[in-house]
Amino acid sequence: MLKDVCAKYYFEGNYNCAETLIRSGNEYYGLELHDRDMIAFGVFGAGIQTGNTCGAIISAASILSMKYIEKKAHESTDIKPVTTALIRKLNEKYGSVLCKNIKAQSFDKELRCKYTVDSVCDILEQVIAEYESTKAGGVQ
């Protein structure tokens, strides 16, 4: 499971939520990102350092980008529906995609944003599985 990989980066690596998700997604999904590429995601932690859009969510959407866009987003028929599903499910869970709102619900002083990271991992995996099933003509 993706969240098992996340635990390694979050606790052992001491990465923030955004860094954890992109590094874990890179390993889990074989995205072939280089270390320097993933450093760019550091700024997205803590809601782009301002409580805005949750960094874990930004990285999850970026994982979808790497999986479903070959060259340009507007040439992909996959990226909008799969990203829409991700954001919809996260809004259903938290009522928001803003870090400041999510943090109010799930932050733990010792574990920091671990609960959010785990939830984003679970939802991302679910969205990908459902989308792939739909693409393959399966039943959701």
Helix content: 55-70%
Largest sheet: none
The SSE string, one letter per element, is HHHHHHHH
Shape: globular
| Rg of Cα set | 14 Å
Number of beta-strand segments: 0
**SS field, number of helical segments:** 8
The residue-averaged pLDDT reads 96
Helix-strand layout with pairing:
Blueprint: H1 2-12, H2 17-29, H3 35-39, H4 45-51, H5 55-68, H6 79-94, H7 99-106, H8 114-135
Helix pairs in contact: 1-2, 1-8, 2-5, 5-6, 5-8, 6-8
Could you explain the architecture of this structure?
There is one protein chain. This protein has one domain (2-135). Helix 1 (2-12) runs antiparallel to helix 8 (114-135), helix 2 (17-29) packs parallel to helix 5 and helix 5 packs parallel to helix 8. The chain is globular, with a radius of gyration of 14 Å. It has helices at residues 2-12, 17-29, 35-39, 45-51, 55-68, 79-94, 99-106, 114-135. It is an all-alpha fold and 140 residues long. The model has no long low-confidence stretch (mean pLDDT 96). Helix content is 69%, strand content 0%. It has eight helices and no strands.
What's the short story on this structure?
The chain has 140 residues and is mainly α. It is built from eight helices and no strands.
Which characteristics define this entry?
about 140 residues, mainly alpha, about 0% strand, globular
